[in-house]
Target: Sigma 54 modulation/S30EA ribosomal C-terminal domain-containing protein
Amino acid sequence: MAARQRARPPPRLLPRPPEEREVVRHKSFSLARESPDEAAFEMEMMDYGFHLFTDIGTGEDSVLYRSGPTGYRLAQVRPHPHLVGPVAVPLTVSDLPAPRMNVAGAKRRLNIAGLPFVFFADDTTGRGNVLCHRYDGH
Model:
């Protein structure tokens, strides 16, 4: 799948000091059960930077994002690289499990690492979660 050209550049994040950042919105929904190919298609069509889903082949909560030598990287709560595939989109698969933590721990990691998002397994439920920066810096 060829990467889709963006119609406009992504919005710049409002710079906000880490100590002022707050978690201002929580979304809860059932994760779609789909293949990495379907996740890549949805991610491209919706112009997302990442896509959280349940991998239909492994049953694992997973996140697909743009990275690595292939253009896409797949991370899972409990990785099963040998069960992923075959896929049409070129991707690399992380063999590291998602870190188990709560939202406060994910917020610390997001602020320290300077990443656009953090994928983690909730320390209570074990389910995959993503914490990301908003356009307003929160």
